[in-house]
Design goal:
Layout lengths: L38 E5 L4 H12 L3 E6 L2 H10 L3 E4 L5 H15 L4 E4 L15 H29 L1 E7 L3 H4 L5 H21 L4 E9 L12 H9 L9 H12 L10 E4 L7
Parallel strand pairs: 1-2, 1-4, 2-3, 4-5, 5-6, 6-7
Helix pairs in contact: 1-8, 3-4, 4-6
The protein binds nicotinamide-adenine-dinucleotide.
The site of nicotinamide-adenine-dinucleotide has 26 residues, from α1.
């Protein structure tokens, strides 16, 4: 802080000698956003954005549980960070309860929950979709985060500290054609974030925030129609897709102890597609 109470200009965070954020000797900036002592669970952490979040939070000092439906992917990512792999389906109450027990018995009480697992569903005009196709997307993208929040919040409340970061999507703000179930599910994630944030506000250092990425290069795009992906990329003013590292950096901030006066927000990471 200067003597006028103004923050100095931003400097880039550097990796320390060990390659871990916050490990650089004599680098005051590297002390910021430390996740030392934090216990994190990332759903859908086996690949894509979730795996990048796992690696980033680990590099900042957190102990991380990687929850994923795919055992091979969860195991590989967890092994890479000395974390815990937990295999399960976010739609299953039993899997969710078991995941928290397993993560906490191995790593300690949870402090950060990242609800990241999600699916797009089939890309088509909405009147061509079956009711089951709609339900499947809502089950994974809405019920999953709901079940994980419901399971984790009592512990966070009891300890008076917690960070919840929900991965929504620009689709939840804008509504993408041929992605009605996905868009509706992500709008629900944004609203759920705001409701839970208000329920927890003032009950401790507890924040709940969402992020809304535009197109990020991950395997999720492989399951979508090229026309839908092209439509979405064409809407990004900076003219490129985002990277998982860029998304992980934003999640890192929201998951950090420093992000203590921001709750109920949906952070845009869309290359300028949304300016709200
Ligand atoms: N990639 C993008 O362009 C983009 C844009 C906006 C939002 N998002 C959101 O970011 C999140 C991650 O996306 P991604 O691109 O990394 O996806 P991805 O498909 O690459 O990875 C998703 C992971 O979640 C796991 N998963 C899926 N359903 C699950 C379930 N029922 N239970 C447990 N695990 C499950 C998968 O096994 C996979 O490892 C999703 O919520 C997605 O909607 C992605």
């Amino acid at each position: 802080m200067t003597d006028r109470g103004v923050q100095p200009p931003h400097r880039a965070v550097s990796l320390g000698e060990s390659g871990r954020l916050g490990a650089g000797r004599g680098d005051a900036m590297a002390e910021f956003f430390s996740m030392a002592g934090q216990v994190v669970l990332v759903t859908g952490g086996g690949q894509g954005i979730g795996a990048a979040v796992v690696r980033r939070l680990h590099s900042a000092g957190a102990r991380v549980a990687v929850f994923d439906a795919d055992a091979g992917r969860a195991g590989a990512v967890a092994a890479g960070v000395g974390g815990v792999a937990v295999v399960g389906d976010v739609r299953s109450e039993a899997d969710v309860a078991g995941a928290l027990e397993r993560a906490e018995s191995a790593l300690g009480p949870l402090t950060v929950l990242v609800n990241n697992a999600g699916i797009t569903g089939r890309c088509d005009l909405s009147w061509n979709l079956s009711a089951d196709e709609m339900r499947q997307v809502l089950d994974v993208n809405v019920m999953g985060p709901f079940l994980f929040c419901r399971a984790a919040v009592p512990g966070l409340l009891a300890r008076g500290y917690g960070r919840v970061v929900n991965v929504a999507s620009i689709a939840g703000k804008e509504g993408n054609p041929t992605l009605l179930p996905y868009s509706a599910s992500k709008a629900a994630v944004i609203a759920m974030t705001k409701s839970l944030a208000k329920e927890l506000a003032g009950k401790g250092d507890l924040t709940v925030n969402a992020i809304s990425p535009a197109v990020i290069r991950t395997p999720i795009l492989d399951d979508m129609s090229p026309a839908t992906v092209d439509y979405m990329i064409g809407k990004i003013p900076v003219g490129r897709v985002g990277t998982v590292e860029e998304v992980a950096a934003l999640v890192h901030y929201l998951a950090s102890p420093e992000a203590s006066f921001t709750t109920g927000q949906c952070y845009d990471i869309s290359g300028g597609r949304a300016t709200y």
